[in-house]
Fold these 2 entries.
Entry 1:
Amino acid sequence: MLNINSVSWLHILREVTTSVPRGSLVGLLGPNGSGKTSLLRAVAALVPADAGQVTLDGDDVARVKRAALARRVALLAQHAETDLDLTVLDVVLLGRTPHRRSRWSDGRDDNTIAERALERADLTEFAHRKWQTLSGGERQRAQLARALAQEPELLLLDEPTNHLDVGHQLQLLSLVRKSGVTTLAALHDLNLATMFCDSVVVLDRGRVVATGPPADVLTPKLLAEVYGVEATVHDHDGRPVIIFERPPT
Amino acid sequence: MWTVVAGHLGLTDAVVPVLRDHIVWQLRLPRVLGAAVVGAGLAVAGAVMQTVTRNSLADPYLLGVSSGAALGAVGVIVVGLAHGVGALALGAFGGALLAFGLVVAVSGRSAPTRVVLAGVAIAQLCAAVTSFVIIWVADPHATQSITFWLSGSLARADWTALAWATPVLLAALALVFAQARALNAFAFGEEAAATLGVSTTKVRWLLLVTTALLTAVLVAISGAIGFVGLIIPHAVRFLTGPDHRRLLPLVALGGALFLVWVDTAARTVFEPRELPVGVLTALVGVPAFIFLLRRQGSR
């Protein structure tokens, strides 16, 4: 269970309090610059919170050693780039870095876990493909497999579907959902959030303005206040679907 | 030749002429070993810099570290504070850190080509000051000294120099090899490495200071030899792939072999005249640099 307790950072996060229960997928929503990425970075201990604390099953992430934290928290960034000539398997094995027993060799376990992670990301046939030859969707799945190979308790996703077409967006989030790992995911697409998230947290200018199940939170009133858009929310077999109005010109 | 070496190691009682013994034991052998040590060290320094700075054009020479070290060494000689390889190496280390610090301060986190631009500018500045200092103190062998420090040569490699450089090389290799996995984690950038459990700030500084120290000691015995650190890591990576656990040992080996061959060529092609070894490494290195630059531009 992830608890974010009154976390502030610069002027970007203001006393953010929320939690992610074990096994759930929580969507982190809000307009550009509302602090989604900063909050994820604070949870990953990439930036130190000025005030408040982030705890993972009671342990303050700022006090956990980097390698120990990397065995518990994995981050999937918006997009990943490298100039190196890596195979998909090489990338996935990077996820074993914090678990190394030997500085030198990959253990038998590491290879088994990497293969299992490839399977979970639906990439088994891609193991020996070169990173440079992958499409955007395949790259994000490779990064997901790398994150799963870390065997984390908590998965942080920073708008992982930003550069993907709709088919690959749906595929990536269903794979995340299927993995069963507790997840906090910053998302731009509100309809993706209503489709996959157990609950959502809405940030506006660094503050939490709403928390709860997507159907309760994502109302026309909130969308107008936070995003400044006019929208109607429709029920589609119990799942809210948001339709936006064209702004007056 | 082998008889001489065996004789010195106490393996044979065969008698060799004194002159021959002297040439092999005092001149040829230290020079070959010196080339191996300098080649291995520069190549590994280049490989580490390329990974840590995520700049495929990084190399101790192109980033100004070698020229800074040469200036530092010449500075120590001029001030006359101390003599011997140790003092030279210390001065070179100061110069190397200063030059590298300047390059980082000037270029910050800009694109790889801009960092190299800053490096070349600082290298030129250090080279100019080095030449100036050598001529200013009226070194009787000014031209020769300038060529030695700025183009590099293994002509001064002797047992004393080796006694300094070899332990430093071995210590640096041990330290760098121990970080091989952490270096792999830099593939997707520093922040990605941090989320994989690498203490990136600590590792980066540890490795950059180590490579600066290594470069400084090597420059103190051989001057600023360019491009070994650029081309060898790329050539070896092409063969082994980017995993540092395999890459680094082979880069060390490749760098050693490369410089032994190039130095032999520098010594023998125009016999009895000798080319500065840096002239030959530049002849091989500059086309390689242009190739890498073009490949980077096309991405």
Note: The domain at 1-72+152-214 of chain A is CATH 3.40.50.300 (Rossmann fold).
Entry 2:
Amino acid sequence: MRLEPIEAPGVARRVLPPALAIVATFVVAAVLAMIAGGDPLRVFGEIVKGAVGSKFALLETLNRATPLIFTGLAVAVAFRAKLWNIGAEAQLYAGAVVTVVLGTGALTLPAPVLLPLIGVAAALAGALVLLVPAILKTRFGVDEVVTTLLFNFIFLLFVSYLLEGPLKDPMGMGWPKSPRLIDEARLPRIVEGLRLHWGFALALIAAVAVWVIQTRTTLGFEMRAVGQNAEAARFAGMPVMSVILKTALLSGGLAALAGFSEVSGLKGSLTLDLSPGYGYTGIVVAMLALLHPLGVVVAALFVAAIFVGADSMSRAVGVPTYLADIMLATALLLMVLAILLTKFRVRRD
Amino acid sequence: MEFLDILLSASFWAAAIRIASPLIFATLGELICERAGVLNLGIEGIMVAGAFAGWIAVWAGLPLWGGVAVAFATGMALGFVHSVLSVPFGLSQHVVGVGLTLLATALTFYTYRVVLPEVSSPPKIQAFTAVEIPVLSKIPLIGPALFNQTPLTYAAFIMVAVVAFVLYRTPLGLAVRAVGENPGAVAAQGLSVTGIRMGAVIVGSGFMAVGGSFLTLSAFDSFFFDMVNGRGWICIALVVFGAWKPGKALLGAILFAAFDAFQIRLQQTSVGAFLPYQVFLMMPYILSILALVAMSRRAEVPAALMVPFNKGER
């Protein structure tokens, strides 16, 4: 077989493959649910109910979407410039660590000063964490996929050390957990009484900001150009290395904000299970969003809904929650294939 | 001197060879894929799946070698998924690989929960035991290290020779290396670049899964969720470190494993008393990154690595 580019794809060509990818994902999930002894319709029904069926469920979904918007944006920004940042997990924890270091009493400032300060510092820390693999890539040509992946393990061990050493809560009954943030360092709730914090609003603002950067600034143009064809960009006189490093700073900073938002907005302290793989899920979010920053918001809500829904589905029906992870990984693989098929036709030789 | 005591003990080298064994299988698998021009980042997930598949098969009643075969077949099936997406469709090998790792890991954990819904701790199996090779195992230091291991470790060493022989001494190996260097020339000879690449990814993925199964069938006797723990990513670094050659990759794996065994023993010495244990656990990952940086200068990367091949264009 070979692939033949389609000059002007029609509406059907652009819509059908992604739609089929979604349908196929649900078929796979239905078959697996049946193998586990669950009635697929009831399984999907419970997922929907658990994700959006009540005010509590809906707020839970929005809360779960918040870190995913940040990590999804981090991945989308990097992938667009073909910087393969698989290390959002490490950058997230870098942001969380800085939030704890600055927010547990080291600085006593009023909240309107302290919160932005911590946010910026957290983003800087995440940026620096990604800067190391980015420099190894630009200076030595070391593949950043492997280095960012390895950094995830290194950084998690570092956090483990901090939580058992310098950042350990003396009142934590021996658990590896940090002290709680002071009140001034906590992101307040958007509406009093509703369990949704300003981190969500911050995530939406970040998405719009990234969209503006990508569509309205020179840097955005350069990042796209480097991603599409680094050689051509270099030939056109663009500082390719510096664009990649700037992309890394932006991407790492965004991922770190997920850690800031989770600690400051949701948890109030840092533990080793702060992120159940939000960094990796961010890749799925970004790919489902076709790397579009506003699409990331939609994709993050969808992914969060599936995770939150699967939790309550599992309690009700007994099908393992890992069904959600399977659905998302399947959707990711089928979606990249579907997008290819919106632009190419498969021909037999 | 504590360091010297460690380095001169047979148990240290035996541990190093044991730690190296899963890495040898998986590194060979990745090497086969990359020699054919395909970066397989599904390795981590394939190792998880292989570890589980081999173990659950033995738990269900198959003999140990049957478990290894099931792991190999599981790896080939996952490799097939990777190869379809990455070879004929030429999709981003980064995205396909990471996606496959997520899929394989999720499928494994899901199957575990479906098959063993009630258990709080995973059941144990009767794992491979060490088989002493007569005479050779009596050589000081080297004997107990190399010739008193489990059959799966011997198999790992034999596979290095087999893979090296096939790659360098057979027409098939020539074809595999050629599609990784100059696929156009292979196509011009009337061979199918797509077929050879897909075959390499499928077989390579089988090796990765056997590497995973070493953990459950030989190193331990049970399956734990985080038991692969980044070994797949380390193997990717080992392929680079070994300059895409089986023999050098073997040396790299042993060197790496020796270092790993060394840090475990170092933790129990006076040095380990004042350094946090996390520092020691970090070392394998830091070492991998350093190896990548050190080797980056004299890169002998297959020329067509990560370059999709589409007949009639490019």
Note: DSSP finds 14 helices and two strands in chain B.
